[in-house]
Design brief:
The protein is α/β, with parallel strands linked by helices. The chain contains 8 helices and 7 strands. Strands 3-2-1-4-5-7-6 form a 7-stranded mixed β-sheet, sandwiched between helices. It binds S-adenosylmethionine (SAM).
Amino acid sequence: MAEFHFVEDYERWVAHLIEAHPIDEAMSLAVGGDFERIGKIELDILKAAGLTSSMSIFDLGCGSGRLSYYLSRSGFEGEFLGTDVVQSLLDYAASRTPANYKFVMHRALSVPAEDASIDIACAFSVFTHLLHHESYLYMEDMLRVLKPGGKLVFSFLEFCSDDHWDYAFVPTVDAQRTGRPGHLNTFIERSVIEIWGRKLGFELERFIDGGESSGAAGPLGQATAILRRPTSK
Ligand SMILES: C[S@@+](CC[C@H](N)C(=O)[O-])C[C@H]1O[C@@H](n2cnc3c(N)ncnc32)[C@H](O)[C@@H]1O
């Protein structure tokens, strides 16, 4: 399958952060910052999607391990597989989690897992940086690896949110206007997610608003979609 488009830019940016900051700070900044708060919120969202301690979890674009770190401290005893396109982020995530957590460099638009082997597949702040057809291909392969009844959980940006407009769309437009385009920020409307889900054969479980809390850690900011592989598929 095709390779992801801005791997080299991302690697350069992470290398720059590592040079300019202490390692914990660099690894937090590389995934958008706020390592502790966001990690706990992502864990709360998986719990809201039905996470139990013996499940098999796949984390697309796991980065430096905001989710895996807090998952490992939560009493979780299942299996964890995280993929990313930047090796230094994977190495850092592995260094902060138990040895049985798997972190794999994977640059294809697919999931390196067996058919029907995963209970929850998630992607936090990842489809927000991909082209629509790339996210769609990941969703297609996530359906393949999910067990019947398994969940797909991913965060997204939407135009109806003033927050998303202000912190993601306006800076992207300004960067384009001034000839300094940065990394891609992609919006995905709920109607689009409904169509993709239907075309692929997912059942839509629900959306979580960006301002809605799933637990004590508070709201994620980005909205979240929870889809389900039908039990009959
Ligand atoms: C904003 S960070 C979020 C990291 C992590 N999901 C979290 O919430 O802490 C986006 C991550 O996606 C990774 N990424 C970008 N494109 C990817 C792709 N095609 N496949 C896997 N990971 C990707 C980046 O390297 C980065 O670590």
